[in-house]
Amino acid sequence: MLVTITWRRVLLVAVLVFVAGMAIAWSGVIHVGASTGHWAVTDWFLHWSMRNTVRTYAALTVEEPAADAGGLVSAAGHYAGSCAVCHGAPGERPSPVMQAAAPPAPDLAVTAATYTDAELFWIIKHGVKFTGMPAWPARERDDEIRRMAAFVRRLPEMSAAEYRELAYGPKGRLAGGRPRSFEEALDDCERCHANHGRGQPEIPILAGQKPLYLLESLNDFASGRRDGAVMTAAAARVSAAMRAALVEHYAARPGLDEVPVVAPQAQDAEPPTAAATAAAVVAHGIPELDLPACVRCHSPGKRPRYPILAGQKAEYLALRLRAWRSGEAVEASQPDEPMPMIARRIPEHLIEPLARYFAARR
Over the chain, what is the mean pLDDT? Predict the structure, then answer.
């Protein structure tokens, strides 16, 4: 006897399947414990779907270059403190506790080579549902994500000694634990802000910076009001009293100094060099672009909430200006923070000269 298929019968079957599924879920008989693992077909399907999703979205949404090998020290420290417990690292096994998850986190020294840079970028930025892989805490900071993608790309070929040098710093202390003393907290900072606050090329100089600017920046990172996954994790590990002590330490170090104002060249002189043009912008701005003079805010004796730029690293300054222009840099100390608007008024061809000009001032 043939049963005629009608829309009413199809709808009835769908309703019955839904009700049966809800009844089974309500009964609690479905075992959701990680101890049972996944069925082989479920494990295959989830990984297959994940790979397809990553491939598609990486191709459609990630801009190249997706990796930046210029900041491996900060990426390595963050990896050691936040990622290695699940994924392991060269010379270090992952935590047995985290490997009991369903599914366990993959060994990146093996699997990283199976993804493109764009795919690594997408996974690091967005995480993976139904696993323990979180999204990047500061998703506006593509610069941090690019550095982490480059670090993960290096893992398969990195020796244990190379990893420890990058991730643990000169004192050999693992980032990630809560410092018990000022000395431990300082060691944690010096891993990146090395040489008494002078830092790596892509990391800003802290020595001699304005104390209020440093303190508000640390507090904003610790509370999550300022975007930056690396610094948020580092600042949140340190108590408020210890943050104040660190600020006092770094602000008192010999470092940044005031910008000497250089007058622009006369109109009948030779065409101004890039350095002279940058000096004129620092001293007087560009009135026709409604760009204010840099020295109005960024001098030691003015506006304690704004940083000193003289003597700061050119690489860092150029990176920050371009981050302001693109929207990647987010500040919270000032509700009406003007830097995104100001940075967009700076012509692109002046960013590098301005950065070099400030870096050369002492």
Answer: 86
